[in-house]
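Risk register update: the risk of archive-format incompatibility is retired. Evidence:
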Amino acid sequence: MIKIAAIIALTLGGSFIYQEMQREETPIALQTITVPAGQRINITLADGTNVWLNARTTIQYPITFNSKERLVKLDGEAYFDVAKDKTKPFIVQTNKYNVEVLGTQFDVDSYSGTEIFETTLMEGSVRISSLTDDTESLTLTPHNKAYLHNGKLRVKPVDDYSSYRWREGLICFKKETFASIMKDFEKYYGINIYITNKQVQKYLYTGKFRQTDGVDYALRVLQKDIKFTYERDDDNHMIYIK
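Archived output:
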C-alpha cells in the first residue's frame, strides 16, 4: 500500500444528527473526513466498502450503517469498491444526484461550487437519480460515464481509465484543453492559476505527471511543447500563465 500523509479533519461523536433518508428514531453518529489539496487517502467503511478520496474531497458517513441502507455524503471525488449486500443498497449522496448501488466499482466526481457531475462505472451497475427532479434518473452499465451537459444527464462510453489513476498519485490527461489541465493542477497543488496567454488554448494535450513532482516540474515539461511563460505569486498562492 502507498503510505500517504494527509491532514484529516475528523468529526466523531459529540454531534449527533438525524439522517432524514434513514428515518430511524435513534440518532446516528457521523464521521467526517476532509482531504486537503495535494493529498489523497484510503479508508474502509464499517461494511467493508473500500474508498479512495481525492484532493479537496469531504466525505461524511455513519460509524455503523442502519438496517435499511448504507448512505454516505460526498463533496469532491472518490473511488468506491462497494461491499456486496443485496439487502442494503449503498447510496452516495452529492449536492446534485444520488448514486445507488448494491456492490460494484465506480468513480464519482462532484465538487460543490462547480457544474461538474460525473459517475464512471467500472463493474456492476448503478442507478443515478436527481435530488430535485424525480423524473431524471438512469441506470449505468459498465465502461460508461454519466455526466452533465447543459444541465441534463448524458451517457458516453469510456475506453481509457488513465484519468482515474489519481489513486496512484498520477495526474493523467488525454486530449484535454490547457485550461482543464490547469484546473487539475489547482486541485492537486492548492493554488489558483490565471491564464492570460490565449495561444495555449488552441490545442489538446495528452500526458501524465506524478503529483509528487510538483507544479513547477509539470509546467516546465509543458513548456517544451507549448510556448508560454509563468510567474508565481507565492504570497497569494497564484500562478500567472503568460
